[in-house]
Design brief:
Pathway: Purine metabolism; guanine degradation; xanthine from guanine: step 1/1. The protein has 456 residues and is an alpha/beta fold. It has 16 helices and 17 strands. It is globular. The structure holds guanine (GUN) and zinc ion (ZN). Guanine binds at residues 97, 111, 115, 119, 222-223, 250, 253, 314, 318, 340, 343.
Length: 456
């Protein structure tokens, strides 16, 4: 097998011809990619080609390697020279709520009051297709501007809100997962469906969107307290009928929520058991938060191969608690990273990595920048079952990539200027960077032009 750690010649197709006349673009910069999971293999699993290039042929990555060798091998390719910018796979945000774009940074409440005071009134507005379309477009333009090319997003209970997000993603060529957020109790009547409607409306949305282009449907019960057991059962049946869909929900976020789940489901062994009994535990399940887990829950999550999605800015902002990254990784859990917009306080996966670092410090484990970057790219892609397609730069993968300026503000520039190593140059951008660091974004091989500043 070829040694991927020291590519002397470009890895990939011998000659990128531009199949079918599609454009071939050679993007030059510092190329960061992963040969393995750095949590398992150490930081050396991250590979850097200091003066490197990514050859994009249509919608796919055709080759990566040293810039000079790629230029020589592909003289006809259009060259986009990003200078010393870092070239990486686009960020993967594995848990977000696009309808909460307008209420991000709402003050002073813990989870249940926050839902009732801010979230539910805002989500009521998404029965209006024009409102849903406007927010979906604004949200996707914001995340792209922050270097995020894939999200797993909750919508609202209105099917119109799902149509709006998938249509906006399709227009931008993005690979996303999303689904109708199902609730049939403990929420305003205007947001509640029933077990049957949740099933039937989700099924109709699956038929319309799942597997269309780059779109993936995620069956989406909001969380145990806002569903009856009948609704969870109906969604478990739906998942069994459509096993290639993802399933996303919340698990064990805040202690008051845990007490509430115990009261609502006295027969369940624990919170996870509520979902497991309904058939909502499996390899395609994405559980947001996962903070206050029992030993049994951890064992079952691992056995099932489910994904645990760490939402560090949200967990700090809503006051939920400290995710046990080191312990969960050590026992072999699959972990993804997410903003949880708008319970989370940012659209930026850089800011999210910084918060994950800080929470790691509070728990006594300093996450290496290579681990943080992997979580924000390949780890998220693995959690979403998309690791073969996105989340890394490698020949054959879909061309979702970003270029980052590692000196995007004076504060960052003065720190990265004295860096002695690659990761020392990157870490200030992780800790202090935002959308100003994003110098270029390619989605499915297409360079994105910055959208107009969001209005209104
Ligand atoms: N639990 C149930 N719904 C939500 C939500 O919208 N955000 C967060 N952070 N937690 C939830
Ligand atoms: Zn959430």
């Amino acid at each position: 097998m070829r040694d991927l750690r020291h590519p002397r010649t470009p890895i990939g197709f011998a000659q990128a011809q531009g199949a079918g006349g599609l454009r071939v673009e050679l993007i030059l910069g510092q190329v960061l990619h992963f040969a393995a999971d750095p949590f398992a293999e150490g930081p050396a699993a991250a590979l850097v080609e200091t003066r490197g290039g990514v050859l994009v042929d249509g919608t796919r990555i055709a080759a990566i390697g040293p810039a000079a060798a790629l230029r020589a091998a592909h003289p006809a390719a259009r060259v986009t020279d990003m200078g010393s910018a870092l070239l990486s796979a686009g960020f993967v945000d594995a848990h977000a709520h696009y309808p909460q774009t307008g209420i991000i940074a709402s003050w002073g409440k813990r989870l249940i009051d926050w839902l009732n005071s801010y979230t539910f009134p805002e989500e009521m507005r998404f029965g209006d297709p024009a409102h849903a379309a406007a927010v979906a477009a604004r949200y996707l333009d914001l995340v792209l501007a922050h270097g995020t090319t894939t999200v797993a997003s909750f919508c609202t209970s209105h099917p119109e809100s799902v149509d709006a997000l998938f249509a906006a993603a399709e227009a931008r060529g993005m690979r996303i997962a999303a689904g109708k957020t199902c609730m049939d109790r403990n929420a305003p009547p205007g947001l509640c469906d029933t077990a049957e409607r949740a099933h039937d409306e989700s099924a109709a949305l699956i038929a319309r969107w799942h597997g269309r282009g780059r779109l993936v449907y995620a069956i989406t019960p909001r969380f145990a307290p806002t569903s009856t057991p009948e609704q969870l059962d109906a969604l478990g049946t739906l998942w069994a009928d459509h096993p290639t869909c993802l399933m996303q929900t919340h698990l064990s976020e805040q202690t008051e929520e845990l007490d509430w789940v115990r009261a609502l489901y006295p027969e369940a062994r624990d919170y996870l058991d509520v979902y497991e009994r309904a058939g909502l535990l499996g390899p395609g399940a994405l559980f947001g938060h996962c903070i206050h887990l029992t030993g049994r829950e951890r064992m079952r999550l691992r056995e099932a191969g489910a994904a645990l999605i760490h939402c560090p800015t949200s967990n700090a902002f809503i006051g939920s608690g400290l995710f046990d990254m080191a312990g969960l990784i050590a026992e072999g859990q699959r972990v993804g990273l997410a903003t949880d917009t708008g319970g989370g306080s940012s659209f930026s996966m850089l800011r999210t990595m910084a918060a994950a670092y800080e929470i790691g410090q509070l728990r006594g484990r300093a996450l290496h920048p290579a681990e943080l970057w992997w979580l924000a790219t390949a780890g998220g892609a693995r959690a979403m079952g998309m690791a073969e397609r996105i989340g890394n730069l490698a020949p054959g993968m879909e061309a979702d990539l970003i270029a980052l300026d590692l000196a995007s503000t004076p504060a960052i520039a003065q720190r990265s200027a004295r860096a002695g190593t690659f990761w020392e140059a990157v870490f200030p951008t992780i800790m202090m960077g935002d959308d100003r660091a994003i110098a270029g974004v390619w989605v499915n091989g297409q360079r994105q032009r910055p959208a107009e500043a969001p209005r209104g």
